[in-house]
Structure formats: C-alpha cells, structure tokens
Design brief:
Length: about 475
C-alpha cells in the first residue's frame, strides 16, 4: 500500500505543475454514488473534452454483524462401515461474536486522456483475501475514435463503446446491483446472489446501445491470473492443451416508457470450452456479505480399522477449526465446474415510480470435475422487490428471495439446495453516504452428513445448516 501512496503523490506532483491538467472532468462515467443505481453496462453523455483530466474516487464500508449458525450435527457420533469404525468427539460450530467485521476500502484512479478516451484503475486497499493492497483491474474505455481521424466512424461510435483491459467482465445484470469489496452502496441488501457470477479476466467488450437496444459482445483469455507459462492439466481430457478464451454476450431492451415507468429485459451468455476450474463462480476474491458462517471449532475424528485377523489399528485425527480470516465468504455456492462451463442469465427489471423489481434466472452447466466432460448443472433464481420513497428517494425498504440447486458431483444421489431470504431498510444521508439494516435467513438442504470417504470422512458443516441474524452496514462511495 505504501508503494501505491508514493505513486499517487508522485502523479499528483507531476500533474500539478502542468496548467492544462484539470480534475474530475470525466466523460461517460457512471456515478459511484446514489445516482449510479440502476445504471447498467455503460452510458453516454455530452460532456465537453477540455484536455487531460484526473479522477480520484473511493469506496468504504463498515459492517456490524449479529448472526448465529446452526446445523443438525451431533457433538459426538460413532459409525461403523464394514470393518471401519469412526468416532467423532467434541464437534460444534464456532460461535461468532456480535461485532464489526473487517472494514473494506477501494481506491479509483482515472484519467480522461483524449476526447472520448479514458483509463480507469480499481485498487482494493483493504480486503479480506489479501493482507496487502492489490489491483482489482484496469481498463481503457473508448467512446470516440477521433484519435485515428476526426469523426472517424462517428455515426457508429455515437452508440458504441469499447472497453479493453483486465476488468470486471460484464456477464448478466446482477453484478451491477451487487457488493464489491468496499463498494456496496448500489446493493440495497448486504449479501449478493448465493451463486455469484463475477470474474476479472483479460479481454475486450464492445457495446452498441441505441433506441432501447442493449447489446454487448466480449472475449477474454479465460485467465484470472495472467501468465504465459505452459498450460498443463494432468487429469485430461487432453493432458497438454491450451486454455480456451471465454465468450461473453448480452442482448436486451431498456426503455423509459414514460415519466413513471422503465422496463429492462436482458439475456446474457458465458462460455469457456476448455479450462481447469471455472473462474466465473470463484473469482470474487475480496468477498462480500456474511462472515464466520457455519465454521467448526477443532474436534477429533478417531478411525479404528479391523483386519482379517481381528487386529485393530487406531488413528486419531485432529480436525482443525475451519474459520480462516483470509478466505472468501462462507455463505456462497460454487458449483466447481471443471473442463468447461456455459451459463445463461436472464434479468428482468421494472421500475414504476418508487417501486422496483429485479429478477435473476441463471442456468449454469459445466464439466463434472477436472478431467471429466460429463455435464453437471446448477440453477439459480432470485427476485428483489424494493420501494424507494422520500423527496429524492433517499429511503427504501426491500425484500429478496434467492434459491440455488444443483449436484456437487454427478456421483451424488441428490441435488443440494440453498435458500436465502433478506429484508433491508436503508437511508441515503447524502448521495454518497448510505446506512442500511439487513436481516438474513439462509438454509442448506440435502447436504450429506459426512465429507469425503463415507467411512472415514469428517462431519459436513452444511448438513441441516442454517444461519440468520442482522447486519448494520454503513457505506460511502464517491
């Protein structure tokens, strides 16, 4: 983080001596505060280019969490499978204190480099996944091609936008209403969707939005962490192969039909034909929402095996506590697709005066595991109903229901299901400051009692799992 500060001070000092440099005169930029809510994809404006301009922004949040976790596991249990006896003692879920979780902070640096051309850099200053500050991503946004020739393809670029870089890839509409590390002001709730599609791969996206038409086509190299080393998947199906690009597409309709009514409907597509593990549901490293959920304290699992001669061998196993301060949140669902992945998302959005509805239908499929092309699926459905009121819609109340179901492996007899209900109330003290109180109730169904080997595996924390409680969140974005 010290290096980032030094770089920032150096940049400011350099720019300060150049009279032609301004601050904050950015074209086609979506507000990071309240005015950016329900603005999807990209936007165009008529702001005049007045030379090189610098943008500096930030986002912070603090959460006070009061939740409790439960499951159906006993404290002590003994099972016998054939000649193997498993004896588990001292099991219990970790209690969580009613206290603040780790505050998160982001910094945004940008520059308007030319008429219709700007660059943006997003930095996670404080996040759960890393001890140090690190770059989330950066991209170049092009809304005009005048740097090639004055009015070059002007009729096309009037409606088109090009983004190039390692950035938050635009799959679906749900991520525009979600929380991203310190940036939580556009989320009316505290949690994101249970199966949250979010990744930051290197690529390019081309948008064309005109008279209500919403369209985007994108491609990435399929990698979250960039490297030119040889790709080698020892488990096949092709032991030595390349990592395929990810294909992204969006098509829809978005129209303000009259002063009171706006209607939007989009369909989105993601596909990667050859990969190790799908990034789309595992790349949100900074996390969001709920912490310390359904973690176990340390306990003992003692395995006793009897051979053909009647001799026994006993192996005591100390199972460690599962809580990890750096891990991503526990209250999510990752289908862990291997080899390939395809996902479709449909998002309806309707806003009538202060009442708004947003929905998600997400149909995901992929390889059963690394080394297997056998198809496995996971489906998600979510609906939000929010009422915004007050002179500037500075207050809101809302409810959200979200459910995910799918097999964790084709070998499993049953699909597992995770259901969540959230209710929230919020107050925008200003356009850049939000306070919200959120209730959550999340349940886990049809998870197996044990993990791994049926005869010797440890207890599964999600067996009959549930957590519920309150979170108060204060967030700032500018």
């Amino acid at each position: 983080m010290k290096k980032i500060y030094i770089l920032f001070v150096t940049l400011i000092s350099t720019f300060a001596v150049q009279a032609q440099v301004s601050f904050g005169n950015m074209q086609n930029q979506i507000s990071r505060g309240k005015d950016g809510i329900n603005v999807f994809d990209v936007q165009k404006d008529n702001r005049e280019f007045k030379g090189l301009s610098i943008d500096l922004g930030g986002a912070f949040n603090m959460d006070f969490q009061a939740t409790n976790s439960f499951n159906d596991q006993p404290n002590n249990i003994t099972t016998t499978t054939g000649t193997t006896t498993r004896s588990i003692t001292g099991y219990r879920l970790m209690n969580t204190e009613n206290n603040f979780t780790l505050p998160a902070a982001d910094m945004y640096l940008g520059a308007q480099l030319f008429d219709g051309v700007r660059v943006n850099l997003d930095v996670y200053l404080a996040s759960r996944h890393h001890n140090e500050s690190y770059v989330k991503g950066g991209y170049l946004q092009i809304d005009k091609l005048d740097f090639i020739k004055k009015d070059f393809l002007a009729d096309f670029m009037k409606y088109a936008t090009i983004k190039i870089g390692q950035m938050e890839n635009n799959f679906g509409d749900a991520h525009f209403r979600g929380s991203d590390n310190g940036n939580t002001i556009k989320n009316a709730f505290v949690g994101n969707n249970i199966m949250y599609s979010f990744t930051t791969e290197m690529g390019m996206e081309v948008y064309y939005n005109r008279s209500g038409l919403v369209s985007m086509l994108g491609v990435t190299n399929g990698n979250l962490n960039q490297s030119n080393e040889e790709v080698f998947y020892p488990n096949g199906p092709n032991a030595n192969t390349t990592h395929s690009p990810s294909i992204l597409a969006k098509l829809g309709f978005d129209k303000q039909l009259n002063e009171d009514l706006r209607v939007r409907l989009t369909g989105s597509y993601y596909h990667n034909a050859n990969l190790g593990n799908a990034n789309i549901y595992s790349a949100n490293r900074s996390g969001f929402g709920y912490w310390g959920i359904l973690n176990n304290n340390a306990y003992k699992n003692t395995i006793t095996k009897t051979d053909a001669n009647g001799s026994t061998t006993t192996t005591p196993i100390d199972v460690p506590a599962s809580f990890n301060k750096k891990s991503t949140p526990e209250a999510t669902f990752n289908p862990n697709f291997g080899n390939w992945a395809t996902t479709y998302m449909i998002n309806p959005f309707v806003k009538y005066k202060g009442l708004e509805f947003f929905g998600t239908i997400e149909l995901a499929s992929g390889g059963d595991k690394v080394g297997s092309d056998d198809k496995r699926t996971a489906n998600q459905y979510a609906s939000e109903l929010i009422y915004r009121f007050g002179g500037t819609e500075q207050f809101y109340i809302g409810g959200k229901y979200n459910t995910v179901s799918g097999k964790l492996s084709n070998a499993d007899a049953k699909k597992v299901t995770v259901d969540k209900f959230e209710a929230s109330a919020g107050w925008f003290m200003t356009k850049n400051i939000l306070a919200k109180l959120n209730y959550v109730n999340q349940k886990y169904k049809d998870y197996s009692q044990f993990t791994g080997d049926p005869a010797t595996g440890n207890l599964n924390n999600f067996y009959g799992g549930k957590f519920e409680g309150l979170v108060f969140e204060a967030t700032i974005a500018f």
